[in-house]
């Protein structure tokens, strides 16, 4: 498959041109790989009203063995899903008729399909709204091929992992958490936490790798009346980091997504 290049004249076109260059490399042996391995890794629905973006995403994902379909807006996505079940949805936020925010809300009414939203720099408010509406992750344009594929793999991996939200013991990465006994061990080292620190860690640990907004964390740990008091989070996340993180004070386990929330990375 050949990709036609044009002379870029805007920042958006420059980014698309760079993506096309990366795709040239990806497609060197695509047909040969398809002959060797015809197994589909998963079905992905791409929702975007920009044909060039849709083309880039479909080309990239198809080259990696994913089955891909597309829709131009939220209504088209819901219609597509009536006769087909994707394993992952990648959607833009700003689209005609039904935007990505409303699409997230509709899907979350009866489905837990992982959703990755596409946003542009400076759209932090709508990005947070999408995550609160049920999106699992986001990618900020312009993004690279490797970042896109890494987020897709992570989302599909989380979807296949067993749900630990109702379990009594959480074993994830470097962490062993006995919920009834309220005992935490990191790399076999017991860590003493206050009750609220423990509750915060349990919520993070049962949603590993997923971006959790400030409002979602506040509601889950302190209740819905505390969603407008982010100072709680700053204090308790700071305490948790001091007790859990390595001595170099790095944010290895609890990663900040600026203006959005936190992501728990439990280690290998």
Describe this structure in words.
There is one protein chain. 41% of the residues lie in helices and 19% in strands. It is α/β, with parallel strands linked by helices. It folds into 2 domains: 150 residues, Response regulator (Rossmann fold); 96 residues, Winged helix-like DNA-binding domain superfamily/Winged helix DNA-binding domain (Arc Repressor Mutant, subunit A), CATH 1.10.10. The strands form 3 sheets. It has a 5-stranded parallel sheet, sandwiched between helices. Strands 6-7-8-9 form a 4-stranded antiparallel sheet, covered by helices on one side. A 3-stranded antiparallel sheet has the order 10-12-11. Helix 4 runs parallel beside helix 5. The longest helix is centred in the first third of the chain and has 16 residues. 28% of the residues are buried. The N terminus is likely disordered.
Topology:
Layout: H1 11-26, H2 30-36, E1 43-47, H3 51-63, E2 67-71, H4 74-80, E3 88-92, H5 100-108, E4 115-120, H6 124-132, E5 137-141, H7 145-160, E6 169-172, E7 175-178, E8 183-186, E9 189-191, H8 195-205, E10 211-213, H9 214-222, H10 231-244, E11 254-257, E12 261-264
Parallel strand pairs: 1-2, 1-3, 3-4, 4-5
Antiparallel strand pairs: 6-7, 7-8, 8-9, 10-12, 11-12
Annotation keywords:
268 residues, alpha/beta, Rossmann fold, Arc Repressor Mutant, subunit A, 5-stranded parallel beta sheet, 12 strands
Write down the overall geometry: globular
- Gyration radius (Cα, Å) is 20 Å
Unreliable residue runs: 1-5, 24-38
Question: What is the tally of beta strands?
Answer: 12
- Gap between N and C termini, in Å? 38 Å
Domain tally = 2
**CATH structural class of the largest domain:** Alpha Beta
Indicate the CATH architecture of the largest domain. 3-Layer(aba) Sandwich
Element-by-element helix/strand order = HHEHEHEHEHEHEEEEHEHHEE
Number of helices: 10
Note the main sheet: 5 strands, parallel
In CATH, the homologous superfamily of the largest domain goes by the name Response regulator
Could you tell me the mean pLDDT?
83
Structural class: alpha/beta
CATH topology of the largest domain: Rossmann fold
Strand content: 15-25%
**Sheet with the most strands: spatial strand order:** 2-1-3-4-5
The amount of helix comes to: 40-55%
